[in-house]
Amino acid sequence: MPTYVYETIPQQPGEAPERFEVKQSMRDEALKTQPGTERPVRRIISGGLAIPKKMSSSVASPDGDCCPTCH
Question: Which end of the chain is flanked by fewer CB atoms within 10 Å, N or C?
């Protein structure tokens, strides 16, 4: 089951948002309020790790450098 990060939405000037994690099924709707406090929340979307693709042999030079201009 994935873990999602949520952040409370400040209701007062100067109030800091509070982040928390919740394990939810991918089928569950995003939370609208923080469990226990009922403060409004938003789900934080973060990027994953980029996994570089292997360069094709038509792009790489024969000696293994990334390209002919890297010498």
Answer: C
Phi/psi of residue 34, nearest 5 degrees: -75, 125
Taking CA atoms, 21 is separated from 3, 24, 48, in Å, by 6, 10, 17
Does pLDDT of 40 surpass 90?
yes
Question: Domain for residue 59, yes or no?
Answer: no
Q: Is residue 33 part of a domain?
A: yes
| Percentage of residues in the chain having pLDDT higher than 70 | 66
Number of folded domains that form the chain: 1
What residues make up the domain containing 14?
A: 1-46
